[in-house]
Amino acid sequence: MTPRRSDTGQALVFVALAIPLLLGFLGLAIDMGYLRYVKRQVQMGADAAAIAAASEIPMCTTAGCAALTTAGVTAVSKDNSFPSVSQSTVCSPSPGTGATLVTVNNPPACLASDPNKGNSAYVETIVAENVPTFFTKIFGFNSVTISARAEGGLGGGGNCVYVLDQTGSSALRLVLGTYSANCGVVDESSSGSAFSCFIGTFGAPYIGIVGGDGFPLCSFPGASPTTGISAPSPTDPLAYRQATMKAAAPSPTTCGTTTKSPYTGSPSPLTISSTVTLNSGTYCGGISIQQGANVTFNPGIYALTSTSTSNGGLTISVGTTVNGSGGVAFYNSNIRNGSAVAGANGGINFVCSSCGTGNVTLTAPTSGPFEGILFFQDPGNTSSSVVVGSSYYNTKLTGTTYLPSASVTFAFDILVDYNDLVAKDVTFGLTLNGQQISTTSYSNYSSLASGSPLKGSIGVLAE
C-alpha cells in the first residue's frame, strides 16, 4: 500500500503567495472607492457653480460677463473639499496635482449634443480636480483627473407682465372691461398713481406696484394690489437677452432685396396688398400689410428699420390673411437710413380700418435666441404700438411682446399658450367700432424647452 503524501503546509504557501494579489485588489478597491467619493464632490461643485452663475444671468447684458465666472469659481472655492481653485477657459481642463480648475461658459459651448448650446439663458460649468492615488501608484497611476459638468438656468419668476416705466403716472392702466391672468403683474413705477383702473375688473394672482394706485371703481377677484414693493432687480427681466437676440437677427444696416416673391428683405418701405411670401431678412422702411393682402411669413427672424419717422415697424390691417405659424420673430430696430437713431422708428401695430374679418396667425420660435419672443423692439426705438389678439380681429398671436422703451395698447381675448408682455407703459383693453376687447394673459410654456422667457432671479439646475 502506497503511503499518502503529506499536504501539510501547502495551504499556507498558497495564502502567502496570494497575499500580494489580495492586497493589490484591496488597494484598487480603496482607490476606486475614494475616486467615486471625489467624483460626487466634484459633481456637487459643478452643480453649485452652475446655480451660482445662473443667478447672475439677469444682471449680465453683454457677452462674456465676468460676474458669471466669478460667481461660479467662488461657489467652488468656498467648498473646503477644493483647497486650490482657479479659473479655466477650456472644455477639458487639465489641473496639476492637487489642483482644481473651473470653466464657466455662457452660453453653453462644450457639448455638441446639448440642446441649450448657444442659448444665453443657460450657463455651463465644468469642474476638474487632479486626485493623487494611493495603492495604484504601483501600476504607474500617480494621479487621476476627475471632472463633472453641470448646466444652470433661471427658474420661472411666475410673472408674465412687467411695466418698466420707473416714474410715470398710470404706467399700468385698465380703461374699461376686464383683465384676467393666471400669472403675476408687476408695475415698476414709483408714482403715487402708478396703477389706474376705472370701472373694470382686474384679476391676477399677484399685482405688485412699486408706487401707489388709483382705482376707485375697480374690482379684484384675485389678489388685491400690493403697493410699495421693492423695485425688481434687474428692472428689465429680458435685458440679459438683448445682445443675443440682436446678434441673431439679420443685420439691420444691410437692406434685403425685393426683386420677386419670395422676398428676402426690402431696400425701401414695403407695402403689400396682394399675395406674397416673405423670407427672413432686413426690411428697410418696415412692412405694411394692407386690407385684402395674403402674406406668408416663412420661419425666421425679420429685422425692421425705418427711413423716416413716418414708416418702419410692422403694420397689419384687419381683413388680411397672414400666416407665420412656423416660428417667426420680428426685431424692430432703432436703425434709420442705416444708422442708429433714438426715437420713433415705427412700432408694431394692428390697425382697424374697417374691422372686417381676416385671419392672422403668428407664432414665436420654440428654440434658439428668439425662443418665445414674437415682437422685440430695440430699447432705442420709442414708437408706441397696438397689439391685438382677438376673435373679433381673428388674430392669433403666440409669443412675448417686448417693447422696453415704448407704450403699448394690449388687447387679447383669444386663447393662446402664452402672451407675455414687457413694455414701458401698458394699457389693457380696446374699444373699436363699439366692440370692447378685454384682455387675458396666458402662461402655458409647454412648447418651449426653456420655459417662460421671463425668468426669476434664482438659478436652478437645468442638466
Structure characteristics:
20-stranded mixed sheet; 14% helix; 3 helices; mainly beta; 463 residues; 2 domains; 5-stranded mixed sheet
Task: Provide a compact summary of the structure.
The chain has 463 residues and is mostly beta strands. It is 14% helix and 38% strand.
User: Cα distance, first to last residue?
Assistant: 77 Å
Count of spatially separate domains: 2
Task: State the helicity in percent bands.
Answer: 10-25%
Instruction: Detail the poorly predicted runs.
Output: none
Structural class, from helix and strand content?
A: mainly beta
Tally of separate helices: 3
- Indicate the overall shape: elongated
Count of distinct strands: 35
Rg of Cα set:
30 Å
Q: Give the strand content.
A: 35-45%
The average pLDDT is 86
Strand count, sense and closure of the main sheet?
Answer: 20 strands, mixed
Description:
- The chain is mostly beta strands.
- The chain has two domains: about 10-155, no CATH class; about 235-440, no CATH class.
- It has three helices and 35 strands.
- The strands form five sheets. It has a 20-stranded mixed beta sheet that branches. Strands 1-2-3-4-35 form a five-stranded mixed beta sheet.
- A hairpin with a 2-residue loop joins strand 32 (about 430) and strand 33 (about 435).
- Helix 1 runs antiparallel to helix 2 (about 65-75).
- The radius of gyration is 30 Å and the shape is elongated.
- It starts with 9 loop residues before the first helix and ends with a strand.
- The mean pLDDT is about 85.
